[in-house]
Fold this protein.
Amino acid sequence: MGAGHAHPLYVHGHSRVHRMAPEAKVAAAVTFVAAVAITPRQALWAFGVDAACLAGAIIASGIGPRFVLRRLAVVLPFVAFALFIPFVASGDRVDVFGLSLSREGLWGAWNVLVKATLGASASILLAGTTEIPRLLTGASRLRVPATLTAIASFMVRYLEVIAGELGRMRTAMAARGYAPRWLWQARPIATGAGALFVRSYERGERVHAAMLARGYTGAMPDLGERRASIGEWAVAAALPTIAWLAAVTALTGVLT
Amino acid sequence: MTATVDVRGLRFTYPDGHEALLGLDLRVEAGQRVALLGPNGAGKTTLALHLNGINMPDQGVVRIGELTVAEQVLPEIRRRVGLVFQDAHDQLFMPSVAEDVAFGPANLGLRDAELDARVDEALAAVGASELRPRTPHHLSGGERRRVALATVLAMRPDVLVLDEPTSGLDPAGRRELVDVLSTLPMTQLVITHDLPFALELCARSVIIDGGRVVADAATAHLLTDDQLLGRHRLELPYGFDPRIVGPSPAR
């Protein structure tokens, strides 16, 4: 499915991770992230275990560590925020390279940093090995309401069509000398957005007619793609299970 | 495999008060190919939307074969009548070509191998088998049009209704479409402004204007009646003379 033009987050491949049924991957990624989120920040070893398992999965997927690192740039804003915490947090101070930092703040920064990085890496792995339509198939098989997955699927389908319309509209504006610099020149953009909305709405009506014409009765058919086997569920479950074991062990260790 | 289309006294007014059809009568025999000509706003697309029950008549009847279009027989009507919309973007709403072609037959209850076979058959019929895994918005205009046709053929319709199938196509894409349509055995109603296309494909043409059928004759005959064409805002392309065009190989 979906060779050729795909989303920039997707890396074309045929690895075992790519071929895995989408519902197993979605479930594994979500539960893995949940385990990371509840792991206490002092349990450094638990994060080590999580990172090692995730690294293993990334290697198995063949999407390449460089791709993951590049995509990890999305966590940079959180990193910037995290680096700020040790300077402003209260509590006892420690000296690091001559700077007086809050101990509590350092732990806070670490907490944000490690969880954001692990969570984002898991999402990158999921998106890198699963095309968007299959992600949506996976979500609907995990009992995400059909209306929501249908809306998301139409959004994916028509985003480029509408973006194309917007692009042509902007070209048409520029072609007639519209080069806005100041806020009071924004009026054509606002009316353009209005026109785009009306056009998209009318397209929605025509698409609905086209769906009715082919026998649509209110439910999108599940197009019989292979479902996850028990073996696949077991393989997919390995990653979050280890992460949960680590998290629970660390939690009970902290509590006692 | 094919069915007659029988429309009698069809009247339809849009919710905003615009009277689109004012008592339209039209009968098309099983397996016949008819061009529906007429100016913009004549009611051609409105008529097309009645043929598989997207619009319901205010007055009059639409019959496909022995079946009268009505609420309780809509699933069967929609199986029998395939509608190919003017803008293929409206028709291709699924994330991949294969899924889009599968949408109709899946609504008919087909699954798995049977569904797959149906998709293959429809794509092969329009010469688009290699487009199976592609994304609809990355196809060329001609490819998109043929895939849109395949989405309808996958339902094995008895009647095919095409709304301006040649608009936006390059000459080669247009000829490929003629080649495909001329091989299909079902009843066909082709809405078009492309008069040479009508002449090439359809022995019979109907002119619709002001919500009524105003002329119904052999295409070659209609296209040589300059006064009639002029009255209904129809014009032949510059330099095109139906009198000196030989018989169409497509018919």
